[in-house]
Amino acid sequence: MPREKFYQVNVTYPKQLSEQIQLAGKADLRLCLLSGAGADRLVESSMTFATDKGEIENYLSLHHPNFHTFSPSYIYPLEPRKEPNFMYRVCRWLYPLIKLMGANASITSVDLAAGLFKVGVFGHHKQIFENADIRQMV
C-alpha cells in the first residue's frame, strides 16, 4: 500500500471518526482500535507502521476516556484464505512454531475478534491489549 494511503487508513480516518464522535457529543462512547505489536507511542521509530500506529493511539487516548487499543502480533486466520503476500504465506506455514514462541507471539483471528467484541460491548479497565491479554479475557 502506498505511504499516503497507509497513513490515510490508519491515522486520518480514525481521527476523522474521533472528531465526528466529539461533534455528536458522544465522547463517552467506547472506541476500540485494532493497532499492532510494535506501535510506537513515542513516535520515534524508523518504521512507518510503528509511528503511524503510535500517533493514532496517542491521539485517541487523549480524546476518548473509553479508548482501548488492541496490539496483536501475528494474527492466524482460522478460515483458509489466499494470503496477501509472501510473508503471510510463510507465517501461516510456520504457525505451529510461532505458537511455541509464547502467548504474545500470535493469536487466532477468532480470539482477536472475540476480545474486540467483548471490550467493545462491556468495556474493560485496561487500555492496551496484547495477545496474552486478549487470550486471557476470552
Can you put this structure into words, describing what you see?
Helix 1 (3-23) runs parallel beside helix 2 and helix 4 packs across helix 5 (131-137). The longest helix is centred in the N-terminal third of the chain and has 21 residues, at 3-23. It is globular and about 45 Å long. The chain has 138 residues and is mainly alpha-helical. It folds into 2 domains: 1-71, no CATH class; 73-138, no CATH class. The protein has helices spanning 3-23, 48-63, 86-99, 109-122, 131-137; strands spanning 31-34, 67-70, 74-76, 106-108, 128-129. The protein has a 3-stranded parallel β-sheet with strand order 1-2-5, sandwiched between helices. Strands 3-4 form a two-stranded parallel sheet. It is built from 5 helices and 5 strands.
C-alpha geometry? globular
Mind telling me the C-alpha Rg?
16 Å
Structural class: mainly alpha
Strand fraction equals: 5-15%
How many helical stretches? 5
Q: List segments where confidence is low: pLDDT < 50 over at least 5 consecutive residues.
A: none
The structural domain count equals 2
This entry's quaternary arrangement is: single chain
| Portion of residues within helices | 40-55%
Output the helix-strand order: HEHEEHEHEH
Rounded average pLDDT: 90
Instruction: Sketch the major β-sheet.
Output: 3 strands, parallel
> What gap, in angstroms, lies between the N and C termini?
32 Å
Number of strand segments: 5
